[in-house]
Amino acid sequence: MKIRNIVAWATLLAGALVIGYEWAPSHGKDLIAPEKRQPATEFTLRDANGDKVNLSDYKDKVVLLNLWATWCGPCKVEIPWFIEFERTYKDRGFAVLGVSFDDDGWSVIKPYVAESKMNYRVLLGTEDMPKTYWDVQAIPTTYLIDRQGRIAITHTGLVSKQTYEEGILKLLAGS
Questions:
Q1: Which pLDDT score, from 0 to 100, does residue 63 have?
Q2: What stretches of 19-160 show up as alpha helix (H) in DSSP?
Q3: How many domains does the chain have?
Q4: CATH code (residue 115)
Q5: Where in the sequence is the domain holding 57, given as residue range(s)?
Q6: How many angstroms separate the most distant Cα atoms in the chain?
């Protein structure tokens, strides 16, 4: 499966973290201008309770959509940041959605979510998910989505907490 091949990327990213280098082959650190943003592709996935969740359920919110896996070293670095962002900004119209691509599914995801005390909604990515998300180059891949449901920036790989927070704050302010 393609996700298994990403282990090499995760190892490379973890090495970059160890030496203190921000490895970020993102699509840039600046938000895409609102008039140039493309709509985020709609999807429907299930959460740990089996409930269907649509990306469109989060319209009118700023969304941090994180594609991750429990075995991904850089993902483990980011998750505490996302927990903090959810706690800090949820009352301002912000939400974090985590989509896990673990091959073993909920049997590994549920214990990880509990142990990490993840306070945001976690979904299980499936091969039925639109190619936009399924065909990512590396994990983590994170999208910041504006209140109109458009992708404001895509980060592939590990970027700094500050980079995420600056984007979140700009989108919450209406940028």
A1: 98
A2: 73-89, 106-116, 131-134
A3: 1
A4: 3.40.30.10
A5: 2-172
A6: 42
